[in-house]
């Protein structure tokens, strides 16, 4: 029996820049109690599908039926009841659902409280879930006292607490290291099966398929591939012989804008037509010569320590850290959530002071700089890519990049060209004029990366830049960072859990 049935589903957004179709005739069925994982690149329609199933957005055409509810026909009141009782929803931007004044224990129990559960029941359920995700000792902590990965696990617990009939999870492990991500996947899988919960989880992380009964891939707003547990992956062949090849395979095969298909003894062979695309290059260009300054120390950290809190609640994040970051090299900061990766980036950017030790950037001791001098340092020689892209939603992708350049006293004409070039580097040429409010989370992340690249800074600091990206785009971004470091003589310092980015790094610092 189908728990979820979607037929010929379209979701079209109308904007001043034109119409954008996120879903284009998607058809999909999810059996009751089945755990389905939906994979796909950023902008493919994964999150839109989930928002329709969650009753947050209505279909533009087609039908979406969940159990006995036709979501397109429900009144606003019935839709609100459906959202609160039937579904548990974990959105990409987990921090938005976490009230900063509540403890972890209280946050997990919010939905149960709204349903009228007594305090003892709320606390018992919250303690059970927090223990399952390894956060029992954080039950009295507030979001500001937790790492991004810890906050994300709290959001997952909060979605599961009221035992929903349908669990919808949108990139639930985007900010987690591999070990923590595995724990969350196991938790979702175990609880979904324990309570007979139908689950749809969308992700770009292929590790999520370990808990799936079935996996589908979505590209261009349609289902392109499907895999049953224990079976091989199959491509969906549409009418007229239309087949969508996995983008990550095209990247690894260095196939750019043209391909050749030939019939061989074992089937159809697809290969690059013309010159193979250069790794990390969207247009196939060969890398420019390396800058002469490569190897020079651009940032230096000596005996740096950082502590938060006092007394029994004191947390040591960094302790006696010594390291150099050099021009022409990519340094990957690795380690579990809460190990100090983001803190170190903030210290290098002058956003936080260390509790001990010294930091110098481009020969300047940060301790000697005032607030305005630090801001000037971030404006010119430093570019920062935060976990949250922090874009202006009503501006286009191009305008968001341009604004950052104009604040650096770049002329409007040059800012426009550099913005377009940077967006091309991250594969967003066709989306340059679209307002970022209409872009997917992965596309917004790539806009933030383009904004940093366009600044042509000597030091590029990136905090989980591929957390919302699929494998193909993560591969391209990792290679792009390496090319940027060599060509610009820049130091790229990247906090990441992504093995694809770590593989491209020249230096790895495990925290």
Itemize the secondary structure elements and their pairings.
Elements: E1 2-15, E2 18-31, E3 35-39, H1 46-53, E4 61-66, E5 69-70, H2 76-85, E6 87-90, H3 104-108, H4 110-114, H5 119-132, H6 148-160, E7 166-170, H7 178-194, E8 198-203, E9 214-219, E10 222-228, E11 234-235, H8 247-252, E12 259-264, E13 267-272, E14 297-308, E15 315-326, E16 329-334, H9 341-348, E17 356-361, E18 364-365, H10 371-379, E19 382-385, H11 397-406, H12 412-425, H13 441-454, E20 459-463, H14 471-488, E21 491-495, H15 499-504, E22 507-510
Parallel strand pairs: 3-8, 3-9, 6-7, 7-8, 16-21, 16-22, 19-20, 20-21
Antiparallel strand pairs: 1-2, 1-4, 4-5, 9-10, 10-11, 12-13, 14-15, 14-17, 17-18
Helix pairs in contact: 6-7, 11-12, 11-13, 12-13
Task: Please provide a brief summary of the model.
The chain is 31% helix and 27% strand. By secondary structure, it is α/β, with parallel strands linked by helices. The longest helix has 18 residues, at 471-488.
Structural features, described:
- The protein is of the alpha/beta class and 511 residues long.
- It folds into 3 domains: 2-228, Rossmann fold, CATH 3.40.50.300; 245-277, no CATH class; 297-510, Rossmann fold, CATH 3.40.50.
- The chain is 31% helix and 27% strand.
- The chain has helices spanning 46-53, 76-85, 104-108, 110-114, 119-132, 148-160, 178-194, 247-252, 341-348, 371-379, 397-406, 412-425, 441-454, 471-488, 499-504; strands spanning 2-15, 18-31, 35-39, 61-66, 69-70, 87-90, 166-170, 198-203, 214-219, 222-228, 234-235, 259-264, 267-272, 297-308, 315-326, 329-334, 356-361, 364-365, 382-385, 459-463, 491-495, 507-510.
- The strands form 5 sheets. It has a 7-stranded mixed beta sheet, sandwiched between helices. Strands 19-20-21-16-22 form a 5-stranded parallel beta sheet, sandwiched between helices.
- Strand 9 and strand 10 form a beta hairpin.
- Helix 11 crosses helix 12.
- The radius of gyration is 24 Å and the shape is globular.
- It starts with a strand and ends with a strand.
- The mean pLDDT is 85.
């Amino acid at each position: 029996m189908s728990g979820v049935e979607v037929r010929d589903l379209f979701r079209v957004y109308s904007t001043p820049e034109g119409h954008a179709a996120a879903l284009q005739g998607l058809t999909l069925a999810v059996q009751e109690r089945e755990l389905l994982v939906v994979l796909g690149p950023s902008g493919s329609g994964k999150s839109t599908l989930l928002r329709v199933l969650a009753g947050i957005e209505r279909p533009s055409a087609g039908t979406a039926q969940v159990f006995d509810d036709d979501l397109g026909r429900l009144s606003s009141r019935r839709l609100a009841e459906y959202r609160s009782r039937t579904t548990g929803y974990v959105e990409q931007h987990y921090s938005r659902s976490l009230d900063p004044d509540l403890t972890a224990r209280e946050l997990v129990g919010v939905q149960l409280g709204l349903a009228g559960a007594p305090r003892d029941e709320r606390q018992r359920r919250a303690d059970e879930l927090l223990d399952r995700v390894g956060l029992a000792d954080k039950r009295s902590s507030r979001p500001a006292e937790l790492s991004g990965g810890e906050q994300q696990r709290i959001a997952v617990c909060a979605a599961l607490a009221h035992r929903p009939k349908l669990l919808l999870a949108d990139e639930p492990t985007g900010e987690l290291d591999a070990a923590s991500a595995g724990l969350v996947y196991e938790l979702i899988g175990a609880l979904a099966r324990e309570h007979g919960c139908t689950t749809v989880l969308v992700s770009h992380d292929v590790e999520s398929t370990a808990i799936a009964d079935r996996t589908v891939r979505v590209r261009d707003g349609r289902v392109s591939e499907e895999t049953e547990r224990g079976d091989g992956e199959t491509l969906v062949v549409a009418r007229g012989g239309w087949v969508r090849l996995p983008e990550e395979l095209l990247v690894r095969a260095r196939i750019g804008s043209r391909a050749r298909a030939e019939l061989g003894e074992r089937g159809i062979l697809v290969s690059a037509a013309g010159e193979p695309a250069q790794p990390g290059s969207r247009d196939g260009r060969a890398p420019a010569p390396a800058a002469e300054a490569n190897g020079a120390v651009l940032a230096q950290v000596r005996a740096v320590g950082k502590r938060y809190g006092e007394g029994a609640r004191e947390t040591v994040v960094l302790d006696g850290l010594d390291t150099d970051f050099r021009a022409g090299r990519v340094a990957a900061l690795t380690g579990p959530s809460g190990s100090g990766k983001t803190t170190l980036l903030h210290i290098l950017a002058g956003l936080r002071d260390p509790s001990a030790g010294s930091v110098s950037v481009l020969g300047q001791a940060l301790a000697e700089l005032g607030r305005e001098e630090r801001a000037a340092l971030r404006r010119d020689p430093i570019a920062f890519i935060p976990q949250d892209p922090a874009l202006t939603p009503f501006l286009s992708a191009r305008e968001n990049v341009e604004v950052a350049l104009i604040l650096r006293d770049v002329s409007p004409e040059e800012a426009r060209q550099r913005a377009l070039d940077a967006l091309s580097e991250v594969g967003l040429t066709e989306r340059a004029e679209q307002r970022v409010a209409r872009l997917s989370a992965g596309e917004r992340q790539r806009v933030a990366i383009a904004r940093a690249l366009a600044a042509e800074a000597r030091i590029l600091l990136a905090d989980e830049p591929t957390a919302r990206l699929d494998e193909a785009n993560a591969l391209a971004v990792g290679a792009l960072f390496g090319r940027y470091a060599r060509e610009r003589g820049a130091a790229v310092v990247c906090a990441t859990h992504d093995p694809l980015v770590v593989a491209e790094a020249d230096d790895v610092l495990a925290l």
